[in-house]
Amino acid sequence: MKHPDQIAESIERFRRSLWDRESVERPPVGVAPDRSWLPVQYLKAPFPRDEVRPEDVTPSLVRTDYEDASFGRRVFRDDWLPYNAAWRAVPWLEAISGCRVPYASGSLSGAHIVDHVEDLASLQIPADNGWLECLRSQTKELVATCPPDCFVSPSILRGHSDVLAALRGLSGFFLDLYDAADVVEAAFERVGSLTLDVLNMHFALVPPKLDGYGHINGYWAPGPTVTIQEDIMGLASPALFRELIADHVARLVERLGQHTFFHMHSTGYAHYKHLLQIQGLAGIQLTVESNGPSLRSLRPVMHQILESTRLMIFVDAYFDELAEVARQLPRDGLYVMVSDKFVDSDEAYRGLLASAWP
């Protein structure tokens, strides 16, 4: 898919601009396949049942990220690095914790299994349901068959609050925060331990490549890297995030290391200032969506983040404002990713660079 010289050039740009924060002509800029954000589309045939089980996740049924990205790709001169990850349609941590995975034509989610908050304490995590071994097997297969220009990345792993909201149901989870905070606290600890175990397993199976590691956000890092998240807490107040979850995130970052990013949506980013207080966090990844604030509105926030740490932005909306906003942002510590629904050729990519970083 990409020439070795192009891969090397992009890696050097990530090294200097994103990680070393050198003053550069332009930051790394990647063009991500729009298809990749709905990986249930990777199915090679209609799914035959109403629930996905571990034995279903096989190469005969599901294409890899690399295979799917090859369909119709027209941009090759950008800095986006190809990757493979265990099928990202699966809510891995939720499934490993015991949730069923009902099939849907859109995004797959875990079906809640805990009707009473008191039952969280006795819930077996990880569950003995085959999903953890499925993830291990998937990762080993991807490493063994990895193309030369491709990196094996951790799959999407949702956060402490996301997993508990799946186990209890969204309404139950938010009531638990007030009615049974001590039970939730203990459950957060168990989910955090599971996350560490899963990532330790991943990096024990995935060796470094080209002196580093790749990620599903298309970037390169000089050490094991992951982007963690707490999407459900984007629905809560920043004060609640600080009181209930910030310490758990900080402990996870401490154990995962200095190449750990935190993912946020523009529809739920209000707690970003608390993230800036977490020691060792590599930076923030912000997905800009059409139902959230515009890029122009977010510019002061992005500028503040870049004053403190690194920032990766994925522009999934408001692309027409990108060039204007990019010219006003610091270039060091920044990585910009855009959807190929906006940039569909190398010529369009060169036009973006010329207008945003003249």
Question: What can you see in these coordinates?
Answer:
With 358 residues, the protein is of the alpha/beta class. It is built from 13 helices and 10 strands. The protein has a 6-stranded parallel β-sheet with strand order 1-10-9-8-7-6. Strand 4 and strand 5 (220-221) form a beta hairpin. It is globular and about 60 Å long. The two termini are 28 Å apart.
List keywords for this structure.
358 residues, alpha/beta, two-stranded parallel sheet, globular
Strand order of the largest sheet: 1-10-9-8-7-6
Q: Averaged pLDDT, please?
A: 95
Helix content: 25-40%
- What is the distance, rounded to the nearest whole angstrom, between the alpha carbons of the first and last residues? 28 Å
Low-confidence stretches: none
- Major β-sheet, in short? 6 strands, parallel
Counted beta strands: 10
Query: From the helix content, strand content and strand pairing, which structural class follows?
Result: alpha/beta
Overall shape: it is globular
Query: What fraction of the residues are assigned to beta strands by DSSP?
Result: 5-15%
What is the H/E string?
Answer: HEHEHHEHHHEEEHHEHEHEHEH
User: How many DSSP H or I helices?
Assistant: 13
Using the CA coordinates, give the radius of gyration. Answer: 20 Å
